[in-house]
Design a protein that fits this description.
homodimer; 234 residues; alpha+beta; Arc Repressor Mutant, subunit A; Chorismate lyase; 2 domains; three-stranded antiparallel sheet; 8 helices; DNA-binding; DNA-binding (chains A, B); DNA binding (chains A, B); Bact_HTH_transcr_reg (chains A, B); transcription (chains A, B); DNA-binding transcription factor activity (chains A, B)
DNA sequence: TCCGCGATTATGTATAGACATTATCGCGAA
DNA sequence: TTCGCGATAATGTCTATACATAATCGCGGA
């Protein structure tokens, strides 16, 4: 039996992540959750306070608690779904699957993901194109143990990122942002000069402790940047 | 009278930030803090739990609570203070003031900050050096209307970022991360090749709606990256 | 109709106590 | 001396309650 605290939290997170509760949706009052889980208000309060501190929900006295509008961390998230972003901006978007294979991971990848070396992962490389201009090159590892249905997915309609996001909402993510110079191959793929600065975003995501996917996305430095809004923790 | 919670927190943070409690230092037990502040254990516990969730301290049952070892997990937030980071990591740090002037801002800067064009700002350029290797070049605008005492500050002891952080804690910040190629001047300053990829972090901060400062920090791409951990979960 | 003010309500902070969990310490036995 | 195990001490979780604070609602008066 997990701790109640964690269960309440998981439930709320799942509802938000799955989109069942979209931004602006009113979350049950503390006394309602109290009744639902049969616990004291302090327990509910601590969960909601923490979620609020993490920016997932917004609380206001008397008015109640609602799912937060995507504002701060969302910038990092948004960029991951090209299809959605392009649709919102009214831009023609397409993607090209450049590579697809199932391979055991090497020692370095095992270290990064916390999985045993040799674990089989689906490896996919995708080029994202908008208005005929390459916008990003994506190399992705997908954990077949967590997402077995990926094995038979063709990624014909949706790129891996979009496809995954709909199936496996993440609960935990680690990001690394680097600046690197494009080598010849990358330059060709992205239609930039060899040696041009690129922004590389690495993201590893977990769901309830289980590793889901690792994405390494390379953006041409002259066409992209990341934007984020942060507030100090209360 | 501020809330007790906040007071305890401020006290502990101050001791850690000032270096009085260095990494590994054992923090008073909950029952000791209880006695010191004359409050219940829950109050102390919530403060310490929050600090632990923020990575400032490490807690272990029976063993107690200690100041956390500096990790790179919070680079996005901590990178703002070189002096503090260097002190925590035990690295020799110094900085060089390369430029200092008071100038009216141009139209572009006015747009970014939301201030009227022509507003007078203090412009400072700083080079951050650790162990004799340049680590970052910082260009900063400081709003003299919000921080008038900056006008007479020499920045002899502390670099502008550290100095500001102690005087004007920000409540709201906007970050932009880019990858750019170093031009000749920048390459010389950072001891890298011309054209090498650099990570550029732009941060604009506000305090209660009033613009405080804009920093544009350029890191050599081969020596730095940003790491962030985002989770709905703490 | 519109405005102001008090009642209501949801969250914010804090208390005192209880039991669970876990790592360490120290004692006693092999 | 070393190993194992129980006592101990610290944090982790939770309860039931109390009062504070802030924002909204709604009623009554102008």
């Amino acid at each position: 039996m997990k701790h109640l605290h964690q269960r309440i939290r998981d439930d709320i997170e799942a509802k938000i992540m799955s989109g069942e509760w979209s931004p602006g949706h009113r979350i049950p009052f503390e006394h309602e959750l109290m009744a639902e889980y049969g616990c004291s208000r302090m327990t509910v309060n601590k969960v909601l306070s923490t979620l609020a501190a993490n920016g997932l929900i917004t609380r206001r006295r008397r008015a109640g608690t609602v799912v937060a509008e995507p504002s701060n961390q969302q910038a990092v998230l948004q960029i991951q779904d090209f299809a959605l972003e392009a649709a919102r901006a009214g831009i023609e978007y397409r993607f090209k699957l450049l590579h697809r294979s199932v391979e055991p991971i090497d020692a370095a990848a095992a270290q990064r993901t916390g999985l045993p070396a040799g674990t089989k992962m689906l490896c996919v490389s995708t080029l994202h194109v908008m208005d005929d201009v390459p916008q990003a090159f994506e190399q992705r590892l997908i954990n077949l143990a967590t997402v077995p249905e990926a094995d038979t997915e063709s990624f014909k309609d949706d790129p891996p990122g979009t496809w995954l996001l709909r199936r496996v909402p993440w609960t935990d993510a680690e990001h690394i942002v680097r600046a690197v110079s494009a080598d010849g191959t990358m330059a060709k793929r992205l239609h930039i000069e060899t040696g041009a600065a690129c922004l590389v975003l690495e993201r590893r995501t977990w769901q309830a402790g289980a590793f889901v996917t690792e994405a390494r996305i390379t953006y041409p430095g002259d066409r992209h940047h990341l934007v984020g809004r942060f507030s100090p923790v209360a």
